[in-house]
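[agent] plan:
  1. take the single chain provided in the ticket
  2. run structure prediction with default settings
  3. attach structure tokens to the ticket
  4. add a short note for the reviewer (M.T.)
[agent] executing step 1
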Amino acid sequence: MKKSATLKRVTLENDFGGQISFIGKLENESLNYNEDSGELVSEKIYSTEKGRTGYSITTRNGEERDRRAYLMEDQGKTCIVSNGSILLGLDTDVMLTFCAQALAEMAKSRSEDELEFVKKQLQVVNG
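[agent] step 2 finished; step 3 output follows
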């Protein structure tokens, strides 16, 4: 039987927006290293007490570090996304189409293993 995680204060650092804080719990995390590029990528997905989804991705390559964080809320036909500075409402179908196109572009330069990983991450996020 899987033990339920305890809710706690979570603060996501963001180099491309504001800091994002909420009460929630970690749902999934992954750590990947690309030997060819030397890039280390950490991704974390949180659920908040208010039913939102927090997402953070940190990329490190040598001394360079890039931290991005988002808070998302599914409102049916609309998805609200914030990077801590900007709040954006997107039609859910349009957002999914945009994400699919972005993933297709990424697929051109990725290996089969990386694509399988992305598919598994999407399954976790979408339940």
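[agent] step 4 note for reviewer: The CA atoms of residues 28 and 124 lie 8 Å apart.
[agent] ticket updated
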